[in-house]
């Protein structure tokens, strides 16, 4: 039976103290470590001198929270309450360290040090971005960073609208031509092809304009958040202990198996030696040839020479004795 639990590490600075949460659950925006998330970039389109601009607003916010899962649920609810929709939402753990040690009974205790992260991409109506960010502010314990981008696409919208208008006028002109008055099939085919291509280009221009208009109307906000590092405790079987126990219990059986295996290896060795009969026969033939043929033939001149050399000293000795 496994035991599982999670406990938070104690940081050098208590993040709850940094947050300065009040009784209502909202953050104290006066804390310099937890500044306001809102930006003038989200509402600059309302300025009179920017009335002819069409801004696509994108925001990226990275911050720490007390509980990633609870924050994710609250931010999803906040997104729907402010008239937006959730594009992506995920939670994942980043494991930074793992320790294992035996606790007896063929079991291991595993300590996993991890940091839980959450990431969301939401689309919020431009008019409600400020309200949404104020709601996010209540979840922030420590703000790591934020970034706002405003891209003016007013000219792109006008360009797409103009393309759609030009293609509509082109279709009107083509519609005034009566292709039935000619018997030339090539002319009829060209007329139909030009009409179809014009409608296609008009549709693409209108779709591009609608896509840009949707990005202007709904701002894209990416939220990346995390919580304090935690330690997850679990108990799992000790595989090495199980193997060692099994080896001790089956020693006799394994001993008999080892004897049988050794006997099989011995038989294989005998068979291997038997496979060398041709090589052994060749060695025997070579030895007999050397002893019976090559060696006598090789040693014959040396024997004669040795005999002659041994006789001469005797003859010399006899001659000397005779002369005396």
Automatic annotation (TrEMBL):
Q: Which UniProt keywords apply?
A: Membrane, Transmembrane, Transmembrane helix
InterPro entries (UniProt xref): DUF4349
> What segments bear the compositional bias annotation Polar residues?
26-44
* Comp. bias (Low complexity): 1-24
Q: Which residue ranges does UniProt annotate as crossing the membrane?
A: 263-290
Coiled-coil regions, chain positions: none
Show where the DUF4349 domain sits.
56-288
- Tell me, what's a Pfam family for it? DUF4349
Region Disordered: start-end pairs = 1-44
Query: What name does the UniProt record give this protein?
Result: DUF4349 domain-containing protein
Which source organism does the UniProt entry give?
Answer: Moraxella bovoculi
